[in-house]
Structure formats: structure tokens, C-alpha cells
UniProtKB/TrEMBL annotation:
GO terms for biological process: folic acid-containing compound biosynthetic process; tetrahydrofolate interconversion. The keyword Cytoplasm does not apply. The lineage of its organism: Bacteria, Pseudomonadati, Pseudomonadota, Alphaproteobacteria, Hyphomicrobiales. Gene3D superfamilies: NagB/RpiA/CoA transferase-like. It catalyses: (6S)-5-formyl-5,6,7,8-tetrahydrofolate + ATP = (6R)-5,10-methenyltetrahydrofolate + ADP + phosphate. It comes from the Bacteria. ATP binds at K7, T8, Q9, Y10, R11, R132, I133, G134, Y135, G136, A137, G138, Y139, Y140. Belongs to the 5-formyltetrahydrofolate cyclo-ligase family. This is 5-formyltetrahydrofolate cyclo-ligase.
């Protein structure tokens, strides 16, 4: 099996496991993540943090994002501009959300575009060494590359349920490793020396 085939298999299996979590359990698990990460995630007031608004069976991290805002974070969410590009628009309380394609919603085109210093990244699957499998379109990999090209190095925290962990993600040269992973069990930092 090629690395790409294995990633596809893991993605399909772990998303099916995520889909199987009953909605009320997903809410409880999301609240546990907010408790674990809300105070443990290291941010300075004014830090730009990109989160996301949940689609399908994703973790609803709005409680976590609210806690980070209380601690001084400036929030933004990804907006898909075209088949290869996302930008991060500022998410302010009370601002209307508009459909943004692929089942997502977010702030409209009048919202400020920000460069995050920290990214809360949704995952299909992950391993303990910080390798991740996204949804297959490469949006986050390209966004992170663009930030690196600007001289920025955002910290990357993967967001997933425990059931999305796999033994080992086949890493490819373009893959960017996470700094930490937040699940309902807690916030786990990744040693870059591993793997």
C-alpha cells in the first residue's frame, strides 16, 4: 500500500469513527477540550488564533475559542477563496456569518484578514509524533507554507477526538508536523525529536 493509499484508508476509517460519536457525546467531548485547552494553551494577549466553525461531525471548538478570547486572543477562522487558497478572516462577536463554500460559514469579505500566530487545526487522523492527515485538499499545508514564506512560524495545535488517533501517519516531504494535539483526554505536546 502506498503512503497516499494508507492516508486515504486512515482518513476514511477515522472520519467514520468520528461520525459514529453520538451528537450529545460530541458536545461533552468538546467541553472537555475547552476545559483542558482553555487555560493550558499558552497565549499572550493579542495573539492571533485561528480556530474553525464546525462542519459535519467536527469538534465544536467555539467554547474553547471563547475562553481564548477571554484570555486576550484575537480570533480568526479560515475562509476558502478558491480551490487552492484559504485566508483567515477575523471573527468578532456579533458579526454576521455568511456561507463560504464546502459547507462552511464565516465572516464576510469586509472582515479583516489576519495572519495567525497560532492555528487550531481540524484533523481527519493524527499520530503521537504530530503527523496529521487533513481532509485531502491541502489547504492548511499551503496556508502554513505561505505564512512561513512571510517569515512567520505559527504554533500548530491539532484538534481531534481520541478515536482519530492512528499508529503512524505516513509522512511526506510537504507535511508539516503539529506542535501539540488537543483531544477530550487533554493537551499533549509533541516532541519534534520523535519520528
Amino acid at each position: 500500500m502506498t503512503p497516499k493509499e494508507l492516508k486515504t484508508q486512515y482518513r476514511n476509517e477515522r472520519l467514520a469513527a468520528r461520525d459514529a460519536i453520538p451528537a450529545d457525546e460530541r458536545i461533552e467531548k468538546a467541553l472537555a477540550m475547552a476545559m483542558h485547552g482553555g487555560d493550558e494553551i499558552d497565549i499572550e494577549p493579542g495573539t492571533v488564533v485561528s480556530g474553525f466553525l464546525p462542519i459535519r461531525s467536527e469538534v465544536d471548538i467555539r467554547p474553547l475559542m471563547a475562553r481564548l478570547r477571554e484570555r486576550g486572543a484575537r480570533l480568526c477562522v479560515p475562509i476558502i477563496l478558491d480551490r487552492s487558497t484559504i485566508v483567515f478572516r477575523e471573527l468578532v462577536p456579533g458579526a454576521p456569518l455568511v456561507p463560504c463554500g464546502f459547507g462552511t460559514s464565516g465572516p464576510g469579505p469586509d472582515a479583516a484578514v489576519l495572519d495567525p500566530g497560532m492555528m487550531l487545526v481540524p484533523l481527519s487522523a493524527f499520530d503521537r509524533t504530530g503527523h496529521r492527515i487533513g481532509y485531502g485538499a491541502g489547504y492548511y499545508d499551503r496556508a502554513i507554507t505561505r505564512l512561513h514564506e512571510k517569515g512567520l512560524n505559527p504554533s500548530l495545535i491539532g484538534i481531534a477526538f481520541d478515536c482519530q488517533e492512528v499508529p503512524s501517519v505516513p509522512a511526506e516531504p510537504h507535511d508539516v508536523r503539529l506542535d501539540a494535539i488537543l483531544t477530550e483526554s487533554g493537551l499533549n505536546f509533541v516532541s519534534k525529536a520523535i519520528g
